[in-house]
């Protein structure tokens, strides 16, 4: 079982996200995480999908996604060429004593305290998925009340850009 | 001009001559707009058959078939037909009416989320929100359906969009899609690699699939294999790419195929898979196929290459274009006369024995062989699904100019009659014959109404054994059961009376009849004819 992150650039048509998630569902592909948002060029949406499977399946994922008519491109975000980030928000039950401890753990991970209640603390933490996993592991002794993770977003390093001048749009037929 | 009139204008611009469908409240404005054109709408009896007719029509014309149905049940009835076309890569443009835009999502009368429902078996779908988008959408829909790997496209149009006035009817002159760009020409370097393998091969073989007929490459393929004397086997969808009687053709592969075809494919050292998927029914263990051979996979859909089997040389492109590229190469193939001779011996030796059948019944092999000999040489033969289909793949002989069609991928019972009728409407000059079992016939016999109304001229053969024979075989072979849910009852229906009810010619054939004479009348009588053939329920494929 391998894992790959894909950067998918799609036309902002209605239902495009359901076309992609539907493809994963009906062909039995595993999505570990999916994030979507508009790109620097508002006509396009960037979707980052982390998928798992053996190499044949991961190759099929790339080809089957590329086949959908709304897809501009799908590329593997390789760890060497890319930067990944994920954001997590954790709400922990914390009395006065716990708060001091939690704040110091959070500081080590460069987390932010975004809300404080009498009996709770909300921490925001950003980083690679493994860093977030490691942080959550350290919270084992505490009661996590709620946890929200965004899933992975990623970008290629270097000067790639998404802007797509109309002059470059292919003309067919 | 309103949305409906704009759609009609676009259909005319695409050269659409006729379409198949069923009316209803939501689609009324479109049928109304059709009144003022030369496009002929054919009113079917159930929407699923509109898609099958459009499929038969499309396969004969090499262009997208068109269906127009109403919202809700009209649209959902179409689904099986769309899925059938998708599985066999048949180009269709399906237009469905939808409830008024402002009501979408509120479960009003005859509302169904059809774009959502067909998502997994259309090439693309549109829900039209603005009538001004219609000219672009229509042009894109035909382009997507007819290019790359062909397939169905669905356009869902709310009633208010059909009646909305559009500002200016200006269809785009060219398709401008940022995202959809199918590969047509083969990569030149890959073509060279294929040529090299052809020159190295001692035991080459080609396996042709449905992609050959779909890309209109039958002539190119035949010219190629005849020039270099390459033996050919086919998938079910590839039947007819080579005439059955050709000395280079060695039958259908797969678990329902001929043993000598499978053996030929196994023993080859070079296998060219052309426009086929290497699907589960065609190749038993795709993962083992490359063990002793070089595999070249040529297909227009890159996702099919490597899906079931990792090829040695992948070549993405439209078959016709790719073989025109290959034709330009001078290939020095090795002498392989001995290989061809071995294959011919296999064909002679490995032909299976037929089970013994009762005297009162017709021997299907004899019947299908005689039928193919007596049919017109350029006839279209459409078989349904089940035993009749497998028997057809074994015993029906496709002639040089003949066509063989069936629902291969989806295996949709009831396909033959509407598809044969659609084919005969596309090419009224050619004889069209539908062959079905009594199960499949009863699934689409409502279309006799359509065929009678429009004065159709096709031949319909019913192989009657009062049983869902193929399922019975499965139950028998895999579950050792005597068979449940396969008995159609032996008393009804009376096919003669059904034929009479629709004013069609009827004939009957059993083991005691004069086959020659019955066939002659069946093939030459006027209008649509029904031939009932008594088949032994104990017969096996």
SSE map:
The complex is a heterodimer of chains A (173) and B (541).
Chain A: E1 2-11, H1 16-27, E2 30-38, E3 44-53, H2 55-67, E4 71-76, E5 82-93, H3 96-108, E6 112-116, E7 120-127, H4 129-138, E8 144-149, E9 153-156
Chain B: H1 3-13, E1 18-21, H2 28-34, E2 40-43, H3 47-61, E3 65-69, H4 73-77, H5 79-87, E4 92-98, H6 114-117, E5 124-127, H7 134-146, E6 152-158, H8 159-163, H9 188-200, E7 204-208, H10 211-214, H11 218-228, E8 232-234, E9 249-252, H12 259-267, E10 270-274, E11 294-299, E12 313-316, H13 319-327, H14 337-349, H15 364-374, E13 380-383, H16 387-395, E14 403-405, H17 416-426, E15 432-437, H18 438-444, H19 447-453, E16 459-464, H20 469-479, H21 495-501, E17 505-509, H22 515-524, E18 529-534
Parallel strand pairs in B: 1-2, 1-3, 3-4, 4-6, 5-6, 7-8, 7-10, 8-9, 10-11, 11-12, 13-14, 13-15, 15-16, 16-18, 17-18
